[in-house]
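Allow me, if you will, to draw on your knowledge of protein folds for a short while. I have a record of one protein: its chain in single-letter code and its fold written as discrete structure tokens. Kindly check, if you would, that the fold set down in the tokens agrees with what the sequence suggests. Thank you for your consideration; the sequence and its tokens are set out here:
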Amino acid sequence: MRSYSEIRYRFGPLERRGLIGTLRPGQLLVLGSTVLVTILIVETLRNGAGLALGVSPTLTKALATVRPEDAADASGLLATVAQLGQLTGVAAFGTLFLNRLESLGGPEAYTSAEALLACMFALAGTAAVGAVSGLVRRRR
């Protein structure tokens, strides 16, 4: 087995120029966490942009047909219903997750993944129902 100095010598000129080098475990941890934080920031920005592009036009379209004298009441009602919908959704899916977790046994990684999978299917089904209900035209 070659020693550290022999391996280091092989990369000597490139390492002295800073083009290549040996990374220690601490440096790998910092590099890995930096990449993960960067991915997290990019995905959070992408999620926020998607919500901004989707929710705002939807709420604007919902209020577009309201008469101007009823606009204040409709706006308040819309905000209240949106908050209640979020609250109800978090409570319902949180209850589903915790009940599924309890029925599978103790809190372990496998049971947590199974409970999360059940919640993801329920969320996907709810999203599909919401999308289909948005396609139905109103009668006038």
